[in-house]
Queue: 2 jobs
Job 1
Amino acid sequence: MAVTEASEGDHPPIEPAAVTELAEVDLSGLPPGFVWGAATSAYQIEGAADERGQSIWDTYCREPGRIKDRSDATVACDHVHRYVEDVALLRTLGVDAYRFSIAWPRVQPTGQGALDAKGLAFYDRLLDELLAAGIEPWATLYHWDLPQALQNLGGWPVREVADRFADYAVAVHAALGDRVRSWMTLNEPWCSAWLGYGSGEHAPGAADVGLAARAAHHLLLGHGQALAGMRAQAPADHSLGIVVNPGAYRAADSLPPNEVEEVQPAVTELDGLHTRWWLDALLLGTYPADTYAALAPHLQGIVQDGDLDVICQPLDFLGVNYYSDVLLQPRSRGGAVPVPALTEAAGVRVVSGGPESTTMGWPVTPDGLRVLLGRISRDYPPIPVVITENGSAWHDSRAALQVREPALPGPIPDPARVAYLRAHLAALAAAARQGVDVRGYFAWSLLDNFEWSHGYTQRFGLVRVDFDTGDRRPRSSFEAFRALIAAQRAGSSS
Ligand code: FCB
């Protein structure tokens, strides 16, 4: 598959000192037994699409105009055939744990019925390889690849899909629970509901507030049903959780006071849809009144008596994915549309791009991680938190790529990714020192991969992947993360 990057960055080569400095980030405060890991997801890396059922992302990729570089994930990183090499990379990295997802259409091609032995066998092999390498598997049951057959029934806006998810989750947990102790039901259900059914930026590509609202409820219901079923059969050492991506909305830094005030109602509305909807339901057993009132016309007969009790199951940990704060400014200042808006948010735009942003256009706001975690521990009952994703996309400069030519072996310098990692880990440790109960950190991502509607134009990997040959080449951030993990372990044991 020929892949062209949108543009090449121009970062100067990394100085060796930067790696040393990374090991000197103040990580005091992280608790003993802190889990270091790297994360991926099935659709983004696996390939071997002909060996599984179709998902909504396969369909979406075929629709003209959906994927920036017109690519798909038929091959992706070809991880199904290269998992041995990928586990070896994880072992070199020195992580305690690997967060991956199970492709629902690989183990249950139509979303119901018996599990597929051949599909399950791939995860058997992967788990055996991980355990032999001393790496703890952390499995996500749903990272966005809904079987197309269930979308044909209406997808997440239909209540029956929650039942199907619970059946699938309980069956996979029963099949693999002898080797996987850490489980996550859903990844970022806000994205599944609001990008999948509200804005159309993700599969299945619907743009309808009512569908998104119903999906938002049924995703949570499916999570609750799944968790209850898994809990009933889980041994005591299993740890069951969910992964959310709370939206850290705030006014852009440079706004004058009157404009800060102007965007405030939108901050509240978006915070309700993106953060409180999920955390209130999961941790408090209620929906936030303001958000529920705004969505009520779409939820008649959808939210039934007892549903919130099902949703609010005891969790062993809360997975939090954090990339960036979302900075808002009045529409009069321009910028891209952020998320599907109800009323107030129609008046604002997200600040995207600029010198302090990744190639995704996401501003680099490390202290936002500390602030977000502080808020979760202040506003909700005590819960162990794991950072299940954090990372950044950058282009490799031409100069950096030359560094790894055979004549000059060594990692590909990626100083911007190293700096991002360093700043976010410092913020995470600061949160821990302020009393947040944080138990682990997973870097996104082990490998460059299929970045959803961006195709292969965005590179998040600690390891660069050549999508023409499949070759993997570690970047300096891989070396830096490895050094830091080792230094933290040495420090916490001394
Ligand atoms: C998160 C997704 C993950 C990846 C990163 C960049 O929202 O969970 O799959 O795409 O963003």
Job 2
Amino acid sequence: MIFIKTKKEIDYIRESCKVVAETLQLLKKNVKPGITTGELDLIAEDYILSNNAKAAFKGYSQGENSTDYPASICASVNDEVVHGIPGSRVLKSGEIIALDVGVYKDGFYGDAALSVAVGKISDEKKKLMEVTEKSLYLGIEQAANGNHVHDISYAVQSYVEENGFSVVRDLCGHGVGKHLHEDPAVPNFGRKGTGAKLRKNMTIAIEPMINIGKYNVIQADDGWTILTEDGSPSAHFEHSILITDNKPEILTKI
Ligand code: MF3
Ligand code: CO
């Protein structure tokens, strides 16, 4: 079931999303060669807790056969697509890192992600990040009252494929609010005019995960990290947004 949020609920979601955006901004400033992903995790956790909020991903379980997610953020480097677990990995110049932050505050969630260059990166990785971010904004443009969910999906997919990259099929965006993951699923590929109808005061997270090579992904032995099967680099950008009568409101805008 897709929830339509009340004004009060939207205010709470907006608050959580604000902490998400501020945390991502702080993380972005700290990405440089030599820092570990674990250090980034601590920076995020401190900031979130100091805002009377909780890191939404810590302790999150994907169901029966899943271990609880052990960290506050996801930090996915190079061929890691999403759900990379922060730890002792030292960032090196030339790498790209996707940072994903979820916040739970006063009963409501916010969720967003961005990819950042570490030092100097190749033109190909630069293009990957630009195309992924632009595809997110093209998807957001389609998140209008009366449109269909897959209008978003189609906008993301067509732009990405025109640029020679591929859209991960196995993971989707989602509704967000009282739960981190709500209906509807928001795939990054699909056919225009299909899927659920979008309505004013729905809140959804749109999150293209884009690979330079093939779209196939695999899961690492840690039970969480998702990697490209062909080892090609991957980028991820995400915003939580509110559907309105007019343009969507980007709730996690920095
Ligand atoms: N933004 C991701 C998602 O919506 C982050 C989830 S990480 C997890 O799926 F640990 F909570 F799974
Ligand atoms: Co998400």
